[in-house]
Amino acid sequence: MREKGLEIFRSGKMYSLAARCLNGNAGISPTLLMPSMVNAALCLELLFKSMYYALNETDFKVDGRYSHDFFEIYQSLPADIRSNMSDTFDGLLSNRQMNDVNILESQYGVVIARGLEDQIKLWSSVFVKMRYVYEGHKTSMMFFPEIEETITRAILSLKPLWSSSP
Hints:
Elements: H1 4-24, H2 33-56, H3 70-76, H4 79-94, H5 99-108, H6 116-124, H7 126-129, H8 144-158
């Protein structure tokens, strides 16, 4: 019998691969960056929905309707899971080269949030806002690999057998 949470997890990983392929080819055409971000946001959304399903054995809904707002999923997680995720994220950032972040902050006079919660809030709006780039929505999207790794580790701590699934 198929396990829905695992299927959601696998779908998220497919969007991750698509995001990475697009991002890796942005040197050929910078126009691939926006679709890369949208796919990355879809990955994160599906990973959060997978975690929610693993914890609750039901789909995430807001007022009885499906939602893209995975920040709400994050906020609904038990405090110990959110705390562990924050610690994981902080550890990943402490081992990350931050030259790209420092350059963006310096050149554009912006401050890029380094906290997991702040980043999830930003990424949660990508699918709804940034896919319509022609409407002028702009923001600095950073730390996708670290956020994805953080969520994946949290999911696999709940469902260790998922690590061996194709």
